[in-house]
Amino acid sequence: MRFLTRSLAGILLLCLTLGLLALAGNTLYSSMADRGGDERRRGPAQERVFTVNVARITPGTATPRITAFGDVASRRTLDIRAAVSGRIVDIAEAFRDGGRVSQGDVLLRIDPSDARATLDLARAELAEAEASAREAATRATLAREDLAAAEQTERLRQAALARQRDLQDRGAGTGAAVETAEIAVANAAQSVVGRRQALAQAESQRDLAAIAVERRQIAVREAQRALDETVITAPFDGLLTAASAIEGGIVNTNERIGGLIDTSALEVSFRVSNAQYARLLGPGGALRPVPVEATLPLDDFPITVSGTVDRAGAQVGEGQTGRLLYARLDTRTAGALRPGDFLTVVITEPRLENVAIIPSTAANNAGEVLLLGEDDRLEAGQVTILRRQGNDLIVRGLPEGRELVLERAPQIGPGVKVRPIRRGASGETAPLSETSENLALAPDRRARLIAYVEGNARMPADVKQRLLAQLNAEQVPSAVVERLESRMGG
């Protein structure tokens, strides 16, 4: 009995297994038949055509520009310091932060009482020294005259001695008379020596008195300078900054009470890369005075100032690269700039000949471009990228007379068939031909395109309105449909 039960169960399981296998085979056969029927209904696959923007760009002359950022500074900035200490008794109305002054304007005055007293004392001492000098000069003159009289006496004594000796030789004179004459000559010579000593002392006193006069004159000049320094004036035209002095305040010697900036000597410093710096060098490695334009981006009123590259920095800072350049700004148009302003600097490079300017989207980093060939199929091209100018590239080697694809995309490449939309030289899209093919869209396809246009926030309002009007029409240009669907990705 147990054997019979087990046999029936095995037969039942075998039947179930065979049934499941038959069902699976039938399902597989039905799916293969449906697929074959779909393929027969669909027919052969059609080649997809993409819409691209193309333009014919003619090589010519281009002027590259280097864009950098820099700070404004003045070549002449002065700290205003008090040369003497004292109380401020007068201050100019313009002596405040941002005040404009001219050369020679009085900025402030320090109490001159002490300086004036010192000057009066120095002048009195100078008068005393001059009187002493005049007395010493008189003594020297008298000593010189006294020496001349002594020398005259000596000559007379010598003449008398000569006569006594002549008389003695002739027997008319005596030896005592000769001896007396010799003593007189000796006394006269001694007197001359004494007068010479007195003259030397008088001349020495005169010289010392003259030195004393010079000292007193120096003291007077110092006192006068100290008195003059109680009045602080502007050494050049400019703007005051960080003015901290007030009337009645006490200032110390060499205390900083403000600053003066010459706004007619402004320059901007900016940093460029080594490659950009090399393009600015002339023969012999000298930096060329190329023109620059510096712009201060004020709201709704940007200020642009012209200038010229003046010099390069003396050294490269630690941890920095490139070169620090300085450009002298035109003072006629730089009146609104202030030191510390952050400017956008555009440097004009020398012109390049036989080059073309293309959008940066038209080439990859290796300089590969796509050209429109026969039967509207794309061909590969190669250019040399010379400069990158914002959203444009300056290239060389672009085939002349060929139409260039302005925007590369991952889905297009060499050999792909495209529908070209030609642009003029100004970059405006050329209007579609009136003979363009029109389509009658299915409701779901029309709704999908309208939703895409309405949800595109980057599309200008006028373009969006024009596209919506075309999509709501009964017949829609096929070029418009293909362009929108290529951007939608389907």
Care to describe what's here?
The chain has 490 residues and is α+β, with helices and mostly antiparallel strands. It has four domains: 91 residues, Beta Barrel (conserved putative lor/sdh protein from methanococcus maripaludis s2 fold), CATH 2.40.420; 115 residues, Helix Hairpins (Orthogonal Bundle), CATH 1.10.287.620; 83 residues, Elongation Factor Tu (Ef-tu), domain 3 (Beta Barrel), CATH 2.40.30; 60 residues, no CATH class. 40% of the residues lie in helices and 27% in strands. It is built from seven helices and 25 strands. A hairpin with a 2-residue loop joins strand 20 and strand 21. Helix 2 runs antiparallel to helix 3 and helix 5 packs antiparallel against helix 6. The radius of gyration is 53 Å and the shape is rod-shaped. About 2% of the residues have low confidence.
